[in-house]
Design goal:
About 45% of the residues lie in helices and about 20% in strands. It has ten helices and 13 strands. It has helices at about 1-25, 35-50, 85-95, 110-115, 155-180, 190-205, 220-225, 230-245, 270-285, 310-330; strands at about 50-60, 65-70, 80, 95-100, 125-130, 135-145, 210-215, 250-255, 260-265, 290, 295, 300-305, 335. The strands form three sheets. It has a six-stranded antiparallel sheet with strand order 3-2-1-6-5-4, sandwiched between helices. Strands 8-9-7-12-13 form a five-stranded mixed sheet, sandwiched between helices. Strands 10-11 form a two-stranded antiparallel sheet. Helix 2 (about 35-50) runs antiparallel to helix 5 and helix 7 crosses helix 8 (about 230-245). The model is unreliable at about 25-35 (pLDDT under 50).
Length: about 350
């Protein structure tokens, strides 16, 4: 009878979470925080099923080689190296780790406890895999409620339910993220800008924002002279320069072909033009080494202040028109005002 009651309670918890998840996605179909809320709901499911005080869901950022929290109950986002802490160890070795004496565990990192005053008494960490068995994240629950610690068998079984569901959601999220990133340059692509623009619109109400549209001069000549592989090398070279000149809060996108877009938070039009000039000079002073050749290019730039009253395409068009003038009036220059 007790087993039936426990099973019913688990099913009730899952149904409750799924209902909340459905409501969240129905009400926030295009909201910037939709994916974050999904993982927050799953973290709460894991916490409830395992009977824990806290829970966090971690995702593996393959591009940066870091683990970071996708969602957590009671914690802000934390970033760790891939082999640091119990979460990192579980992911590196692809195995579930349970400890009811964390301060004596060789991989436990007490830094968060020291910072917050929280006392960790028990930890259960379970890797999360995709459909191909590749580890893409980890589920962690902390401090089993009551006097007993986590049970290696029962609590692991219960957490695996949430981990399985969360793994499917994370794989879908990672697939979406991959579709929004250019494989060659690793910058976000046009689809990525369309996706990010919703969050940019919210920020436009609090701060100025600017757009830089830039284009590699005579790019076709590079392809015709040295081949398309050389052209690809130039694109990667330029992408690295662009990424090095912006902050984490800004966005760099490959718009298409040899065109790129930068979205700058808190930048006035004049400040955007000044940054574009610095990038222009950096490109002029740089050399792309390819198969023994030293390839050098220049770039043209068009800058515009982003208007919240305009659609994304219209804001891009303003910058694009100025870029067009830069190309038509000599190239290798920055234009940020209309004639």
């Amino acid at each position: 009878m007790e087993d039936n009651t426990s099973a019913q309670r688990i099913l009730d918890n899952i149904f409750d979470v799924m209902q909340r998840l459905y409501d969240e996605m129905r009400l926030n179909k295009n909201g910037a925080g939709e994916h974050l809320r999904v993982f927050e709901i799953f973290a709460e499911l894991g916490r409830t099923l395992a009977g824990a005080d806290r829970a966090s869901f971690w995702r593996w950022d393959k591009r940066k080689g870091k683990l970071l929290t996708a969602a957590a109950t009671g914690e802000s986002q934390i970033v760790i190296d891939d082999t640091t802490g119990i979460v990192g160890r579980a992911l590196a070795e692809n195995r579930t780790i349970v400890t009811n004496d964390p301060y004596n565990h060789p991989d436990f990192n007490a830094a968060v406890d020291k910072k917050t005053g929280y006392v960790t008494k028990s930890v259960l960490v379970m890797p999360v895999a995709n459909c191909r068995g590749e580890v893409i994240g980890a589920f962690q629950v902390i401090n089993k409620l009551g006097d007993a610690g986590f049970d290696d068998v029962e609590d692991t079984k219960r957490l695996s339910i949430a981990a399985f569901i969360c793994g499917m959601a994370l794989e879908s999220d990672l697939f979406l993220a991959a579709s929004q990133r250019d494989k060659l340059t690793e910058l976000k692509n046009r689809l990525g800008l369309h996706s990010d623009y919703q969050s940019y619109r919210q920020k436009m109400l609090q701060m100025p924002m600017s757009i830089i549209m830039c284009d590699i001069d005579f790019f076709k000549r590079v392809n015709d002279t040295y081949g398309h592989n050389a052209g690809d090398a130039i694109l990667v070279h330029i992408a690295k320069i662009l990424a090095a000149h912006i902050r984490d809060c800004d966005g760099a996108y490959r718009w298409g072909g040899e065109e790129f877009i930068l979205i700058l938070e808190g930048f006035t039009l004049t400040e955007a033009a000044e940054l574009a000039e610095r990038i222009r000079l950096a490109v002029v002073d740089s050399t792309c080494h390819f198969n023994g050749e030293e390839l050098r290019v220049t770039m043209s730039f068009g800058c515009a202040q982003i208007s919240a009253a305009l659609a994304m395409e219209d804001n891009v068009k303003v910058a694009d028109n100025r870029l067009y003038r830069a190309k038509k009036t000599g190239r290798n220059k920055v234009i940020y005002q209309d004639e």
